[in-house]
């Protein structure tokens, strides 16, 4: 992160220096570092501001299924049934507001042996990248409080759509949270059928993959729960176990 800030400031200073003699070069020097910063904020695979794990280390045919945006009173119980039927374990990255409304679902997730993780309190998709330190603190702490009320202390965090923030790395570190990205995601909101979502998530399947799927009303009706069901069936058919990795297994 310090390197990105240094590059940005150096670019601005150089732009001012050459601005009198070469306006075109000055424009390039001014904006190119901004593009670099934008890449590290918005690109899910970028690691410049915050480390986001994208795989876990394993020597077996194992993947990590992560389900974002719950808990949801319609979807979560059905997903828990699917997971139980396949002997699968998953991590639910839940929104704090939803968790506060449905503590019984949080308890059901953990009682079934799954992990509950942190996905901000209000899911501020459009504004998280520019949130102030105070806003970041509130997004983290309010969800923490909601989960603690259900007896959970989360250790893993995923920002909305993987978008980072200048203040996030320090905020995560002080709260003992590890950033988790993904190696494949369903992009359900831009899909029309569950099979297309499953195809996308499983296209480059390999041991140690982190798969991202969603639950709740943001997922199109025809895909809700069905995409997760299909993914679980196909993983089982290909001999993959669905596991929650230990902290020691988290790599790039
Ligand atoms: Zn989300």
Describe the 3D structure.
The longest helix is centred in the first third of the chain and has 20 residues, at 23-42. The protein has helices at 2-18, 23-42, 75-86, 96-101, 103-111, 133-148, 168-174, 194-202, 226-237; strands at 62-68, 90-94, 115-118, 156-157, 178-179, 184-185, 209-214, 241-242. It contains 9 helices and 8 strands. The mean pLDDT is 91. Helix 3 (75-86) packs parallel to helix 9 (226-237). The relative contact order is 0.18. The chain has 252 residues and is of the alpha/beta class. It has 2 domains: 2-42, no CATH class; 62-246, Alpha-Beta Barrel (TIM Barrel), CATH 3.20.20.370. Strands 1, 2, 3, 6, 7 and 8 form a 6-stranded parallel beta sheet that branches. Strands 4-5 form a two-stranded parallel sheet. The two termini are 17 Å apart. Strand 4, helix 7 and strand 5 (178-179) form a beta-alpha-beta unit. Bound molecules: zinc ion. Zinc ion binds at residues 68-69, 119, 123, 160.
Highlighted features:
8 strands, 2 domains, alpha/beta, TIM Barrel, six-stranded parallel beta sheet, 9 helices, globular, single chain, 252 residues, binds zinc ion
**Main sheet makeup:** 6 strands, parallel
CATH class bucket of the largest domain? Alpha Beta
- The counted number of beta strands is 8
CATH topology title of the largest domain: TIM Barrel
Distance between the termini: 17 Å
The CATH fourth-level homologous superfamily of the largest domain: Glycoside hydrolase/deacetylase
| SS summary, helix count | 9
Can you tell me the CATH architecture of the largest domain? Answer: Alpha-Beta Barrel
Bound molecules: zinc ion
Whole-number average pLDDT?
Answer: 91
Global structural class: alpha/beta
Question: How many domains, in number, for the residues?
Answer: 2
Percent range for β-strand residues? 5-15%
Order of helices and strands: HHEHEHHEHEHEEHEHE
Silhouette: globular
Helical amount: 40-55%
Rg estimate, integer Å:
20 Å
Ranges where pLDDT stays below 50 over 5 or more residues in a row are none
């Amino acid at each position: 992160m310090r390197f990105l800030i240094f590059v940005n400031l150096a670019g601005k200073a150089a732009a001012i220096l050459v601005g009198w003699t070469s306006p075109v070069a000055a424009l390039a020097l001014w904006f190119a570092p901004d593009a670099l910063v934008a890449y590290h904020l918005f690109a899910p695979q970028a690691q410049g501001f915050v480390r986001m794990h994208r795989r876990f280390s394993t020597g077996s045919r194992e993947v990590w299924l992560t389900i974002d945006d719950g808990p949801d009173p319609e979807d979560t119980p059905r997903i828990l049934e699917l997971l139980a039927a396949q002997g699968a374990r998953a991590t639910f990255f839940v929104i704090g507001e939803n968790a506060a409304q449905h503590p019984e679902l949080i308890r059901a997730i953990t009682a079934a042996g799954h992990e509950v993780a942190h996905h901000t309190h209000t899911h501020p998709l459009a504004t998280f990248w520019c949130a102030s330190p105070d806003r970041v603190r509130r997004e983290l702490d309010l969800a923490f409080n909601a989960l603690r009320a259900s007896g959970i202390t989360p250790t893993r965090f995923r920002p909305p759509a993987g978008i980072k923030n200048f203040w996030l790395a320090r905020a995560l570190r002080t709260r003992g949270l590890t950033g988790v990205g993904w190696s494949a995601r369903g992009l359900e909101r831009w899909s029309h059928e569950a099979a297309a979502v499953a195809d996308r998530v499983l296209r480059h399947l390999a041991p140690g993959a982190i798969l991202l799927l969603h639950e709740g009303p943001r997922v199109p009706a025809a895909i809700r729960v069905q995409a997760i069901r299909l993914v679980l069936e196909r993983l089982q058919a290909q001999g993959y176990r669905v596991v929650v990795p230990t902290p020691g297994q988290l790599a790039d």
